[in-house]
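Uroporphyrinogen-III synthase
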Amino acid sequence: MKVKTILVSQPEPKVENSPYSRLIEKEKVKVDFVPFIHVEGVEAKNVRQQKIDLNNFTAIILTSRNSVDHFFRIADEMRFKVPDSMKYFCQSEAVAYYLQKYVVYRKRKIYVGKRTFNELIPLVKKYKDEKFLLPSSDSLKPVVPELLDGIGVNWTRGIFYKTVISDLSDLRNVYYDILVFFSPSGIESLMKNFPDFEQNDTRIAVFGNSTVKAATSAGLRIDIQAPTPETPSMTMALQKYITSVNK
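Tokens:
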């Protein structure tokens, strides 16, 4: 069956001329963006209940833009002035660049990984005497604590924000040819919002092994998968599929 409509379970990209824009233009398909999950901040009193005192830390490990936003939000709510001596360990260049929203980059000690948390670990290991805080969501990939414990650093996890399932009731009677998912939480949101969901002719596109596992466990048929050597991005995988069925 031909593809005319796609629903991406994420916010719309803010950049101009995104890969989705090119896909829309080239294949003449309609693409809607609706976040199936969203992030909510945890209150400062909840952070205190975790026995976290920001004065006790000399370094912050930042894995995402959300972790940056919510660390500085909590610091502000606790009236904690982040010292200039604080060290920042950012998982990627994108996270480090985003940090400039809150600090003067050239005046701070910022250490940047390449892309994955695994690639950040050698940098953290070089500073074993620091006291690290990891601001995170309520869901944390198991590999993160495993890697930090493995190098024997003094670190503490703080749950500063949580992932919440969005209300998708507006979509109850709306149908799309393809649904696109990037996380197990997105799959969970689909099944909780629509417990009677029947896939039928709807194609499911998933990104990443954990999302594949969640979709399969939910009894969904996976039609499009990324990344693969041939299609490293979701838009490339969608492009390939649409080209083959819309002949």
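The CA atoms of residues 165 and 216 lie 19 Å apart.
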